[in-house]
Amino acid sequence: MNSSYKKINQQDVDQLIQIAGKENIKFKDDIHEKYSHDELGTAISYPEVVVLATDKFVVQKVMQYAYEETIPVTVRGAGTGLVGGAVPVLGGILLDMTPMNKILELDKTNLTLTVQPGVKLYEIYECVEPEGLFYAPDPGQKLASIGGNISTNAGGMRAIKYGTTREWVRALEVVTPKGELLTFGSKVVKNSTGYGLKDLIIGSEGTLAVIVTATLKLIPKPRFSKSLLVAFENREKAIEASPRLIKDYVLPTAVEFFEKQALGYSEAFFGKTIENDHFNAYLLLSYDANDEEALNRDLAYVEKLVLKEYGALEAFVVDAQSKRSNIWNVRGGFLEAIKASSDFIDECDVVLPRSNISEFFAHVRKVSEEMNVRIPYFGHIGDGNLHIYLCKDNVSDEEWKERVKEGFDRLYSKAFELGGLVSGEHGIGLAKKSYMHKLLGDEQLMLMRGIKQVFDPKYILNPKKIV
């Protein structure tokens, strides 16, 4: 780690104005409070200067100058992260990529979409779906930028069938910390050409290079999609049914788990809930296909399975678009609803083997009871990614800090014991770094630091994150 970072002075600001234009530089009192934190706000630190990136050549020149002067640079997109990954903990330059928000090319022959990193996730859907095409990754925050999705290897609800963001990136154009403009990958489907440098960038959380262009894989959009809401007497039966659903018949697009408690948060915050909201535990399933009759047969068979063999109490086919939108919107709003129920929250984005989820949830409830801390949860149970939230609920800041440390220590220790990992989709950033280090050990960290050293010898790019 470099201990001799330069502090920004007026001469540096003048140089950045020459590079990016005065209208694209924010300094001192002009720096908005939003640049000091991400969506969750667990870490707060202001940059010394903000540069609005308008094109890749501006990014290249900023990085060349920062490398020459040994100035730390933190890259930020829409700021929807939850682990402090875009927080400029050492000040320096914050590179705001949101102005780079153009869709550059929709290639219907090669089935790719080339975009700048500031393009929002929902804008990708709006671009390709009217053309009968499909970008499958479905993270919950549709206002997130694609650069951030790639940097954290975002997952979402459809990962069980379609994989995470990593599987949907064909190529990346990046600027290295030294200011080199490089392209990793291409539009081709196969690639056995050397080391997978593209895949090193995906999930590296802005610590290795700055993404300036992304070429995404597309497929034909499935013509039909329907959902099935399955109600259970208790959480154990719902959790037990999930892996059986995946193994016994057609693969679902999504398998989401939640309990009645989560619906209560949604109703209190949004003023809306789902039909049939009086059961204790639920699986929300989604299926897609190009043949509606075949899809209906699949749903009928799954309905029969869950009721006769998996112990479900009821199964409700959600067919009408309005009802399907409502139920998925309620599910997608759980985080916002839980945040609104407390003055502050922190999250454990753990991922486990499906066979150990029930035991882990039992441990969560035990921790909640023993520590007297409210800990709501829900999850993408089909891929084992669980979202666990510790709620501050008006305790003092000092007590909250102690509770978070003890709670996370106990939750992550159990997750590691059960074969789990620190993060399924939100990344490591600043907040989860110590838990990743504990899990992976010195040898893996040494390898990661070696990669960082090759890409970024001066450690100027997003320092103090991950490694």
Automatic annotation (TrEMBL):
Domain FAD-binding PCMH-type, residue spans: 43-221
PROSITE patterns reported for this sequence: FAD_PCMH (PS51387)
Molecular functions per Gene Ontology: FAD binding; oxidoreductase activity
Broad enzyme group: oxidoreductase
Name of one Pfam family that matches: FAD-oxidase_C
Essential cofactor(s): FAD
E.C. numbers: 1.-.-.-
Record keywords, A-Z: FAD, Flavoprotein, Oxidoreductase
Protein name: Uncharacterized FAD-linked oxidoreductase Rv2280
